[in-house]
Amino acid sequence: MEARIQAAYEHLHAIPEVGFQEFQTSAWLAEQVRAAGFQVTTGVGGTGVVAVLEGQAPGPVVGLRGDMDALAQLVDGQEIRVHSCGHDAHCAMVLAAAEELARTGLARGTLRVLFQPAEETLFGATRMIEAGVLEGLDVLLGIHLRPIQEARTGQATPALCHGASAIMAVTLTGRTAHGARPHLGINAINAAAAVINAVSAINLTPAVPWSCKVTRLHAGGPSANIIPDRAELTLDLRAQFNDTMQVLTERVELAVRGGAATVGAGAEAKIVAEIPCAVYDPEIVALAREAIIAVLGAPGLLEPVITPGGDDFHRYVQAKPGLRTGFIGLGCDLAPGLHDPAMSFDRSALVHGSAMLLHMVRRLTE
After folding, report:
1. Spatial CA neighbour of 121 closest among 13, 343, 325, 272
2. Which domains does the chain have, with CATH numbers?
3. From residue 305, how far is each of 98, 156, 242, 349 by CA, in Å?
4. In what order do the strands lie in the sheet with 210-219?
5. Is the pLDDT reported for residue 344 higher than 90?
6. Residues 87-110: pLDDT tens digits?
7. Pairwise CA distance, residues 145 & 340, whole Å
8. What are 81's strand-pairing partners?
9. What whole-number distance in Å separates Cα of residue 161 and Cα of residue 183?
10. Which pLDDT tens digit goes with each residue over 156-167?
11. Cα–Cα distance, 23 to 247 (Å, whole number)
12. For burial by CB atoms within 10 Å, which of 65, 229, 262, 310 has the most?
């Protein structure tokens, strides 16, 4: 599958598209799986693709999920689209495994391939769920490239333990005034500074990984001599467990209101997107261990990796308790890091990831 994976990766890498705009990406992937013999539905949840391959006898419905979207990033002052999270690689691995399974056939059961849009927005999985992709699904498998700090080429983890994450939008309301008469106004930028300091003062138990930081700030208008009456902040919240995330969210909301109040400003805080932490089926994790050893040998098997990163893959089991899920973290010497526009990795590792997925689906449908 090596040549096929590399060709697919190169094609997808050259057409980066952001969430819910993956028109070329989804059309190309749909064409490939249709040619391989799958029954294909497009436009699922917006730009998603669902491909179905029936086995020779009744059995479990096993899903493979590949996320399609790229990121919009500022590079040298210009906004570009770039696959800096490896979703092009994920789709290439899933596609190659799916095509091989179509070529050899399934002994029993059904393979359902989900090419999902908009993982980076945290809404893609939700839209796919709303479109009914979980109906009858028994098992769902995913895979993600890992930074070099977590795994090297020739290594993989059978359980990538993502934390919960959330995006909070904050609107601060002050009162405008002439720059010469600041005592008549309430400076929304001062309110933003107070909120940032209040959020930075939050302390939760260090026994559980968590973080909260402001990632975006907009305030002020075209005139430099006017006290601004409005500021908008975006906060990124992360916690390893869902209950910790609940506590963190409550603390941040208090900090936002309290910080704004110190300068007399009003504040509104709202969670606009969130995803839960990872919950995996022990038997599927054991199967992933088996697959890693089969492909890389015992030295390539890592223990479960706890990461502060999140993935909306975990929306699926949240929406369907009892769904058996597994998620492999693939080592590929990825540097300098995910979401860095200069991200690069050892592409030879992709065939390892595809072979692991192939092994797991065959074992589940034998």
Report:
1. 272
2. 2-163+278-364 (3.40.630.10), 164-275 (3.30.70.360)
3. 26, 9, 17, 18
4. 210-219, 230-239, 164-173, 266-275
5. yes
6. 999 999 999 999 999 999 999 999
7. 13
8. 72
9. 51
10. 999 999 999 999
11. 39
12. 65
